[in-house]
């Protein structure tokens, strides 16, 4: 059975895609901790990040670095925090979270509910900076 992320990759579920190549996809988290909270995934469904083959693992982090730089340019913040938790969706993923203080990375914090227009605007800004 496909994960929600595989359904996003396959275009079965809409998303706010900020970056994509043949192997990886980055899209906005729909329940973000901060505006610009982005998820990076391999397109091939693998549950646990440490079960990825070495080339996919390294490539995913290189892709995430490029995405993080675009998020930093698009969203005012001090840093882009990185988290790999992997319990909520059984598809390897990296969280890139704009942050100004350590507490911004607390997953127990209330999630934001941003209007579609705001999500689309953030998505466009990040995409415009992705190189």
Notes on the protein architecture:
The chain has one domain (4-129): 2-Layer Sandwich (HIT family, subunit A), CATH 3.30.428. 31% of the residues lie in helices and 19% in strands. It is built from three helices and five strands; from the N terminus they run H-E-E-E-H-E-E-H. The chain has helices spanning 4-9, 54-74, 116-129, and strands at residues 17-20, 24-28, 38-42, 79-83, 94-99. Strands 1-2-3-5-4 form a five-stranded antiparallel beta sheet. Helix 2 (54-74) packs across helix 3 (116-129). The radius of gyration is 14 Å and the shape is globular. The mean pLDDT is 96.
Sum this structure up briefly.
With 131 residues, this protein is α+β, with helices and mostly antiparallel strands. It has three helices and five strands, in the order αβββαββα. The protein has a five-stranded antiparallel beta sheet.
Question: Which SSEs are present, and which pair or pack?
Answer:
Blueprint lengths: L3 H6 L7 E4 L3 E5 L9 E5 L11 H21 L4 E5 L10 E6 L16 H14 L2
Antiparallel strand pairs: 1-2, 2-3, 3-5, 4-5
Beta fraction: 15-25%
Q: How many β-strand runs?
A: 5
**Within the largest sheet, what's the order of strands?**
1-2-3-5-4
User: Total domains, how many?
Assistant: 1
Name the shape in a single word. Answer: globular
Euclidean distance between termini CA atoms: 33 Å
Q: Can you identify the CATH class? A: Alpha Beta
The CATH architecture is 2-Layer Sandwich
Tally of individual helices? 3
Average pLDDT taken over every residue: 96
CATH superfamily: HIT-like
Could you name the ranges where pLDDT drops below 50 across 5 or more consecutive residues? none
Output the radius of gyration: 14 Å
């Amino acid at each position: 059975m496909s994960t929600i992320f595989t359904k996003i990759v396959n275009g079965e579920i809409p998303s706010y895609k900020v970056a994509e190549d043949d192997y990886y996809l980055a899209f906005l988290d729909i329940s973000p901790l901060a505006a610009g909270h982005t998820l990076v995934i391999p397109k091939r469904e693998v549950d646990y990040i440490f079960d990825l083959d070495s080339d996919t693992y390294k490539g995913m982090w290189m892709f995430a670095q490029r995405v993080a730089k675009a998020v930093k340019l698009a969203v005012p913040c001090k840093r882009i925090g990185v988290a790999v938790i992997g319990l909520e969706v059984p598809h390897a993923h990296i969280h890139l979270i704009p942050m100004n203080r350590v507490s911004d990375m607390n997953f127990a914090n209330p999630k934001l509910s941003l209007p579609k227009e705001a999500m689309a605007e953030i998505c466009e800004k990040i995409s415009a900076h992705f190189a």
